[in-house]
Write a structure and sequence with these properties.
globular; six-stranded mixed beta sheet; 5 helices; Glutaredoxin
Amino acid sequence: MNKRILGGAVAAVLLAAGIGVYMGTGSSPAPASRFVLLDGSSQTTSDLKGKVTLVNFWATSCTTCVAEMPELVHTYRKYQQRGFDTVAVAMSYDPPAYVVNFAQSRQLPFKVAIDNTGAVAKAWGDVQLTPTTYLVNKRGEIVKRYVGAPNFDELHKLIEQLLAQA
């Protein structure tokens, strides 16, 4: 009998933990960092609060990054009017002139940052593989991390859910 009670209690705790993660209460806060944008301005992690934000670490030399960029543009345009934002963070090894040329020639509509020192990638979990993308909820918590190109249909469903939350 005691094993059944203990087993039921463990199952209840695990279920509650699973629901907490699903509802976003088990999310971890986005790390404090400062994004230096191409126009010379900067934005901090705390500036992301109140919006659902996609933070994408990429490089102009990364073929997967370049291939997914049109989908990132489409996703941004689809949801920007509803409180969605995107910050594309170029890796420290990416020459700034290449990043500027890429952003201008493809008319990227979202914020593009250059991580000259690597401090932002380090703060966000020592990002080394590109693309690595984080989805951050309105409370500034990381909800999902993608290494490689995300499944954009699933990403859009998750964005819809997060935008619907208060």
